[in-house]
């Protein structure tokens, strides 16, 4: 470990005043002693991620094969494969070698591999890839032969191909299943398009579904998706999609009344609305388009305009949502309509929007919570009998989602008058349960892959064994045992994610472990931070994986960007800091906690704002807080970036659970949700450095 050279006097001058800006710690964790009885050793081990194994010669060959697989270097893969015979990860090596040449491999060779490695993740992974290849080549005989042996996964393309394969199911039934599957697909894959083409030709899939797919592609700037969809229903106009996506205003100015123009106009207005909602509103209001577009098309475009204005925190969003017919809005539009209505205090519109959502969407904790709130708010002015019924409905919604797990679950629990406490620990695992998990070859392979640096492959194998291999996934007790196995190896992300899957038996010490406890608590208290808040943030940032690296270059436990590390090091007087030091555990904790404390100081001690700044950079929440003073939960729900919104909610919920666990005292998440509004004119500006780059 590299030695830290901190100018203690300079650091003290900067850090000591911060405490005045901090809210009281959750459960007074920062002011009271931690429980005298320490948690299990696996929970407090101060080691980094998975302990790296000493690499054997075969391990090095595997790493070489992984690089060759990325390059699609089939000769190199074939040459190296014999060198891993007998290695625990031999099936992975065999999968790489065969997958790289799947199109030229014979059915006999593929089936021989699957027989040899039957029951492994690699058997199912190769079968999934082969069946996609078979389906796209219309080899339905072989496809249907393999289907009974396939263990279902979330792979959308294969699920679409199953609906395209000849079989006894009625076309209408298959079309009903395809529509949500295809509309939720974020790639323009061949399998779903093939199923759509077949069912469209059979008259079972409505053309409106295909145009809806094209609209979603335009709305999300996915040209390939829109082009593929338009080619199915209007092949002669598919070439127009490029012009619509690149310059929708030009397309609208030049368009004529040719066939299918109404839908293409809608696509252009959708794309224009995402780029320039004011221009789209002006176009939509013109006599030219009002006569060509019906209520459905106009409502969809209004929904896109409202969505975009809501993302810009523009109060005019409510006007556009109000002019759209709610039955013609997509779930995504209804979500943003709800957010706009919350920000505008229009509880009637909140109720209307949520009730118009699809049942699956409406049943999500966020919308169940806000629906309950809308019912309670509307009950204030309703006749007595109706008001009582509304309050009863709200109570039922709260009871259905209340719990300690997530942000809205915790808010619902508090709405019922209950505090957040640590659920009773499940019965200890038996020796047989522990042995079954630790003797599971798939789990062993997964941990071995992670230990030698093949984390992505190890995670795939682990997830297969815990979720897919056994129909319905592992039982709660089996999941607890698997999580315990990962905890014992200090593979904290697998420990956490596996334990989070239990339904009835909840082990909070697995779900919210405290690795590096001594270092985190000591550093947090030195600078006036609540350790539970820090643990809640680390849990969300990296799940305690020391070598974690984000897609934008953030590193380590607290996922610090290089520029942020340099800036923060200067602020706290960390002399001779070098960027590579951020990968050192203690340095990462010092830099990350210091930046978090600076964010708290400059955002008035409001944890939601500081967490948003940690994720998206301080400039963005500084802008997002402008406007009306809002209830914190409403402000958080209106964060324009999905990544940051989810991040803030999870950090706050995690912190509340950590506080309950570490202090042993009941907690209230609402204690750390003060109203959020514009900054006082004389307040100091927030730091400009950012840790991670969120995207809209």
Mind explaining what this structure looks like?
With 696 residues, the chain is an all-alpha fold. It is 60% helix and 0% strand. Helix 17 (277-284) packs antiparallel against helix 19. The longest helix has 22 residues, at 642-663. The radius of gyration is 28 Å and the shape is globular. The model is unreliable at 1-52 and 690-696 (pLDDT under 50).
Which helices and strands, and how do they pair?
Layout: H1 8-15, H2 41-44, H3 57-70, H4 74-80, H5 90-99, H6 107-116, H7 121-136, H8 140-146, H9 156-164, H10 171-183, H11 190-201, H12 207-219, H13 223-233, H14 240-246, H15 248-254, H16 261-275, H17 277-284, H18 287-290, H19 295-311, H20 317-322, H21 331-344, H22 347-356, H23 359-362, H24 365-379, H25 384-401, H26 407-415, H27 431-438, H28 441-451, H29 455-468, H30 476-488, H31 492-499, H32 508-511, H33 517-526, H34 531-541, H35 562-571, H36 585-602, H37 607-616, H38 619-624, H39 632-637, H40 642-663
Helix pairs in contact: 3-4, 5-7, 6-7, 7-8, 7-9, 9-10, 9-11, 10-11, 12-13, 12-16, 13-14, 14-15, 14-16, 15-16, 16-17, 16-19, 17-19, 19-21, 21-22, 22-24, 24-25, 25-26, 27-30, 28-29, 30-31, 33-36, 34-40, 35-36, 36-37, 37-40
Structural class: mainly alpha
The percentage of residues in β strands lies in under 5%
Average pLDDT number = 89
Quaternary structure: single chain
Number of strands: 0
- Low-confidence runs of at least 5 consecutive residues: 1-52, 690-696
Kindly provide the radius of gyration, computed on alpha-carbon positions and rounded to a whole number of angstroms. Answer: 28 Å
- How is the biggest beta sheet arranged? none
Question: Number of helical runs?
Answer: 40
Shape: globular
What percentage of residues falls in helices of 4 or more residues? 55-70%
